[in-house]
Write a structure and sequence with these properties.
Blueprint (H helix, E strand, L loop, with lengths): L1 H9 L7 H18 L12 H11 L4 H14 L3 H6 L2 H8 L6 H16 L8 H4 L7 H12 L8 H11 L8 H14 L5 H14 L18 H4 L17 E11 L2 E6 L10 E2 L2 E2 L5 H9 L1 E8 L3 E4 L4 E14 L9 E5 L10 H13 L2
Parallel strand pairs: 1-7
Antiparallel strand pairs: 1-2, 1-4, 2-3, 2-8, 5-7, 6-7
């Protein structure tokens, strides 16, 4: 306990002096030199563009999930100009399954800004980067530290977890006061030399040892001064986000098909699944026959309700009632156009598809065999 008390006193002001910062960064870098990850796809042929794409993909998504998406994405869009000039449908198609699709739309918009305003040269100025769509302070710092060796702190989810435990900082990190304290600590710990290696090291520490569940504290290179470890509070830090019951919304998704072709409709560019291709939707309990005649100008027959499914977003649950409906002819306008298409289930999709839509299309394909 005396050791814990001494460590707590050293960390009491939450903004360590330079010597304490060295006590953190030096052993962390020694550990990373020996054990850190150095063969990730974005660590090869490192450029600001390649690091930027990886950092955006890694938001809310684990490395193991990101790697195959990143490799396919970079094979199709190897340079920022390739991304800028690609149709948004193709960008969203390569993003399908990663979720949080605003990230892909922001990537595309940023690439076009870089093409049009910066003549295709990726900006290397922190103040410029944080003005770009989807790039905040931490992401800008990571890009410039990892790809250009610049001295900038970062504060992603892994880093927040490491620093709150190391300094024994309580309170949900999403609270402004706690976040401000963490930025101060992050800045003091980030060394002027080897900033890129340090940035990768602290992210690796959070991803591989200082994990949310079952952290491997025995292997941690900075455990000797970690307040949470010394006081046996690792399981309680960081303080979790206050839980609240998510509201529930309901919808019907119509699998309207004629033969092996199913009607898809493009969603508006903003909002949930913005810009993705989806199934026609109507409110729960709506009469499907009447809705199709009124909204789609077509006759339908042979309704079949499938097992409902739930898709959870960050701020609400969506309960989906799938309804298989057979097309019986149109009564007005033909439904092919820029925002709707008859999609053959055996062909590549016309663009990005949300995960539940992909699932339902696979079920329909199997049902029609």
């Amino acid at each position: 306990m005396k050791r814990a008390a001494r460590a707590a006193a050293a960390h009491a002001n939450r903004t360590p002096p330079a010597s304490a910062a060295d006590n953190f960064s030096k052993p962390l870098l020694r550990w990373w030199d020996q054990h850190g990850r150095k063969d990730l796809p974005w660590q090869r042929d490192t450029t600001p563009y390649r690091v930027w794409v990886s950092e955006i993909m890694l938001q809310q998504t684990q490395v193991s999930t990101v790697i195959p998406y990143y490799q396919r994405f970079m094979a199709r869009f190897p340079e920022v100009i390739d991304l800028a000039e690609a149709p948004i449908d193709e960008v969203l198609h390569h993003w399908s399954g990663l979720g949080y699709y605003a990230r892909a739309r922001n990537l595309h918009r940023c690439a076009q800004i870089i093409r049009d305003v910066f003549k295709g040269e990726f900006p290397r100025d922190h103040a410029t980067l944080i003005q770009m769509p989807g790039i905040g302070r931490s992401t800008a710092g990571a890009i410039l530290a990892l790809a250009a060796g610049q001295h900038h702190p970062i504060l992603d989810g892994n880093v927040k977890r490491v620093l709150t435990r190391y300094h024994g900082i309580e309170g949900w990190p999403g609270v402004k006061q706690v976040e401000t304290m963490l930025w101060e600590v992050a800045a003091r710990h980030t060394p002027a030399q080897r900033s890129g290696d340090y940035t990768q090291a602290i992210m690796d520490l959070g991803a591989t040892l200082c994990t949310r569940a079952r952290p491997r504290c025995g292997d941690c290179p900075v455990k000797q001064d970690c307040i949470a470890y010394l006081e046996n509070r690792v399981a309680h830090i960081p303080t979790p986000k206050p839980r609240r019951a998510l509201p529930v919304r309901s919808t019907q998704m119509l699998l309207l098909h004629k033969g092996d072709a199913v009607l898809l409709m493009k969603r508006p560019p903003a909002g949930i699944w913005g810009g993705l291709w989806s199934l026609p939707e109507c409110a729960a309990q709506t009469d499907v026959t009447a809705w199709c005649r009124e909204q789609l100008r077509c006759d339908v027959e042979a309704h079949a309700q499938w097992t409902p499914l739930r898709h959870t977003f960050s701020h609400f649950h969506l309960d989906i009632q799938p309804v298989q409906v057979r097309y019986a002819g149109h009564t007005g306008a033909v439904m092919d156009g820029t925002d709707s298409v008859w999609y053959n289930l055996g062909a590549p999709p016309p663009g990005g598809l949300a995960a539940p839509v992909q699932q339902l299309l696979s079920q329909l394909k199997a049902a029609l065999r």
